[in-house]
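Dear colleague,

Following up on Tuesday's group meeting, I ran the structure prediction for the two-component complex that the binding team flagged. I've pasted the input sequences exactly as they went in, so you can double-check that nothing got truncated or mislabelled along the way. The structure tokens for the whole assembly follow below. Feel free to forward this to whoever is handling the docking comparison.

Inputs:
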Amino acid sequence: MHIPDGIVPAQVCLAGYGLTGFFTWYSLRQIDKQGNPGPQIPKASLLTAAFFVASSIYIPIPPASVHLLLNGLLGVVLGYFSFPAIVIGLFFQALIVGHGGLTTLGVNATMMGVPALLSYHIFQLRFLVDRKNPQRPVLLGIFAFLGGFIGLALSALIFMGIVIATVPADFNAGTEQTAIVTLTLMHIPLAILEGGFTAMLVIFLQRVKPELLTGR
Amino acid sequence: MATASFETYIDGRSRIHSWTPRLKLISLVLLMFAFAAIKHLSLVIPMLGVTAMMYALSGLPLSFLLKRLRYPGLFILMVVLVLPFGSGETVLAQWGPLALRQEGLMTMVLVVARFVSILTLGFILLGTTPFLTLLRAMRSLGLPTLLADMTLLTYRYLFETADMLSTMQRSMHLRGFGHRNRWLRLNGRTLSQLAGLLGTLLIRSYERSERVYKAMLLRGYGQLQSSQLAAHQPADRTSLVLTSLCVMAAIGFVITELTFLLK
């Protein structure tokens, strides 16, 4: 689910960079507020590498490719670091495998990074639900599922919005509508899969290495 | 993961190689954006011409470009191949239910030409600038320290992490994972085993990052004064000429595009 170079008009690319600039600034400000980011930098970087490696197994089935997007999980684990992590990951993806592109880096980063930030906040909501014991597996599972689900679902919606608004020159309205509905329906099982996977992984992390989740 | 060699830099002595990195980065990115703005078919030939000229100037072998374009090219072809058949009203040719339409065909030509040109410029940038030089240039153009540090560290550990993952996958396979049927049937158990795999990868990366941070601290990480950052390399004449040519070309393309739009 990347937008390659040459497909979207320059205005969209520029708007994407503008939004990415804003969200990067916002994320960096929040990171600064949390105090000394020093020890967090290597952690976020190595996890970015791990996420990159884990998500680069994909099968291109245009206009989407089927693989785990992992942006919800990234938000859940990395918090505000997830946005810079996604920018960097996409930058490497454009360089190494030519997936996505340099002019569309901003668009792609917004498409995946904003849902990641949202997933992080959703995952943090568990503290509101149960103040005493927010790390209960059931609670972790539910909120991680929501994080993963929304991460993919929202990215897919933004992706389809951009593709439909910019690509087809003169598709007739009927074809277009069928395409939108089919694609949306196609992504629901994927979002459930992504949510389930995120929940399983978060429960696993809580069991084996809880400090990875309670760092903030 | 595709373990293609990451360092795309190819040593050379061309004018593009010796172009001041900061100026090269700005010029090529500007040109890429100007290309992305092109919507009129008559600008396709000049665009491809400028791209070809830049590539010839860079002295990079053609095989480098072809190798790099292969995978993304395949992907975009699959995306745009529906256009000539699904979009537009003027039918050029008809084979049964399949109709080749003019408008769709034109859009396809435009998208593919833009894609090839932008990607080629990107590869010129990466092929003639070592990655670390490029990062330094981005840093001097205002890339935040945190982003630069994260990019460097991610870059440093990317392939080691990929190796770690493939070792883990191999040992899972040796213990019988995925043997029963070639196409992994997606059930809860498989999914939780895969979650365990990725979880372990994350934990190992996390533990390693703690060691890396301690080592970095011992080597004085975070003590660097801004004045210690390398001073800017002064731009030579060739760099300035190349930069102004690129900027003029970019502006020219945008202005021509706008006049077409206003007509």
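The radius of gyration of chain A is 17 Å.

Cheers,
M.
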